[in-house]
Design brief:
The protein has 259 residues and is an all-alpha fold. It has one domain. Helices cover 71% and strands 0% of the residues. The chain has eleven helices and no strands. Helix 2 packs antiparallel against helix 3 and helix 6 runs antiparallel to helix 7. The chain is globular and about 55 Å long. Keywords: Membrane, Transmembrane, Transmembrane helix. It holds the Pfam family DUF1295. InterPro entries: UstE-like (IPR010721).
Length: 259
């Protein structure tokens, strides 16, 4: 299958996945479930490109495992965090603001997110899945090490935050435990790092430079658009100690806190 045909099929996949997510939120009134479906879909696209690509089988296997396992882990975590819980404040605010047009607007908001899904998957996965030769052993090792660090680090950060939230004694408090003492968003840091893992596999390939787009897009999303700005504004309202947390703690890259 040609890269262009594979891309158009990926468009159908992501539109279908977000339509399913929209139908689910009609029933559950919980649009936050789209976050899990986003991760599963993006991981599934790595497996899809690895299946239909023309690169050596070993290269495509590495791609499918890296993207697929990342998406499975993150999507499952987000599903468990959101299913049966109150709707995430971001979507709840949209629903209240949109009023009677909430379901209509939510559908197109979900589909708008596909622009970034396609940018991430296309830039990170296509060059690897269709490269004519295999990357060097050193590149594969580097990719594997970055991937392991990013996925394990994000899983630890997620686990630490869930444990903190599940302790009733921490209600209204700011989490400063574990990785959260060194970064206000360690999960976002490791998420950005995850997209760097594909660079060693792609950069020596034709059009491999496109893989640089993925970590830049993810960093933009998390630090400028839908991640940190919205979340920190809300946390500053809810938690009195958050202003001091901002003052003393690195925003993204783990770093020793200030006194």
């Amino acid at each position: 299958m040609s890269p262009l045909n594979a891309f158009w099929i990926s468009v159908v996949i992501v539109v279908s996945a977000k339509t399913v997510a929209w139908l689910m939120q009609l029933r559950t009134r919980n649009a936050g479930l789209v976050d899990a479906i986003w991760a599963w879909t993006l991981g599934g696209l790595a497996v899809f490109y690895a299946t239909v690509g023309s690169a050596p089988e070993s290269t495509r296997t590495v791609l499918g495992l890296m993207g697929g396992l990342w998406g499975l882990r993150l999507g499952t975590h987000l599903w468990r965090r959101n299913y049966g819980k109150p709707e995430d404040f971001r979507y709840a605010e949209f629903r209240e603001k949109w009023g009677s047009r909430a379901n209509f607007n939510m559908f197109w908001f979900f589909q708008f997110q596909n622009i970034f899904t396609l940018l991430l998957s296309g830039s990170a996965f296509i060059a690897i899945a269709y490269r004519p030769d295999a990357p060097s052993s050193l590149a594969i090792v580097a990719a594997g090490l970055i991937w392991l660090l990013s996925v394990i680090g994000e899983a630890i950060a997620d686990s630490q935050m869930e444990a903190f939230r599940n302790n009733p004694a921490n209600k209204g408090r700011v989490c400063r435990e574990g990785l959260w003492r060194w970064s206000r968003h360690p999960n976002y840091f490791f998420e950005c790092l995850h997209w760097v893992a594909y660079l060693p596999l792609a950069l020596s390939a034709p059009w491999g430079w496109t893989s640089l787009v993925a970590p830049l897009v993810m960093a933009f999303l998390l630090t400028k658009l839908s991640g940190m700005p919205i979340l920190e504004e809300e946390m500053a309202k809810r938690k009195p100690g958050y202003a001091d947390y901002i003052r003393t703690t690195s925003a993204l890259i783990p770093w020793p806190p200030k006194d």
